[in-house]
Amino acid sequence: MIKFSEWLAARFAQPLPGKAAQVKMLPLDGPKRFPIPETTRKSSVLLLLFPEVGGWSLILIKRSADGRIHSSQIAFPGGKIEPSDSSVETAALREAYEEINLPAETVEILGRLSPLYIPASGFEVLPVVAYSPVRPPGLRPSEAEVAEIIIISLPGIIARKALRTVKSSSRPDRDLRAPGYLIDEEHFLWGASAMMLSELEALWLEFLSNG
Predict the structure, then answer these.
(1) Can you name the residues that pair with 125 across neighbouring β-strands?
(2) Which residue in 137, 150, 130 sits closest to 49, CA to CA?
(3) Is 158's pLDDT higher than 90?
(4) 52, 59, 101, 112: least buried by Cβ within 10 Å?
(5) How far is CA 115 from each of CA 77, 98, 209, rounded to the nearest angstrom?
(6) pLDDT-based confidence at residue 88 (cuts at 50, 70, 90)
């Protein structure tokens, strides 16, 4: 039987679920479309898949409480693409090394999900999907940027969708009703990261339906 990682690598050559999957995780009381400015800054995040007993797993982080726009939120490792980065993939791997001590040489790049614009920060995010044959050893959070590393089961997390009241990233005085993925009672994945996971979920369900 073909592994999900192998199927996914081939699937990235075809049109992706894109916006149809992403919009399922938009906050209910916010705008549904955002014009992308021509001068939008670019960033990259890494969705790393690896097999474990019971299915495929992913790595998330809880960002440090630094007072910035996405302070204390659950996210995928990643950040701004620097001029020194040779590619989107290079940027994602560099950020993952800086944030969680993931060596780039231990993973295989599978492809990219659809770009996503985040109005709160003004970044267009380019999600990179990669594969590791085992759970990466030696992971540790960056003291400056990451409060916690969180490992989630892909089949498990997509079964735990929820609707919660959260604080707006751009307006902390405003509450939003947001769909997302409930990791546990203290951790809720919502916003842009949930929109990326929603597209990966669509691909996972397509893989399962193909047998």
Answers:
(1) 43, 116
(2) 130
(3) yes
(4) 52
(5) 16, 22, 25
(6) very high
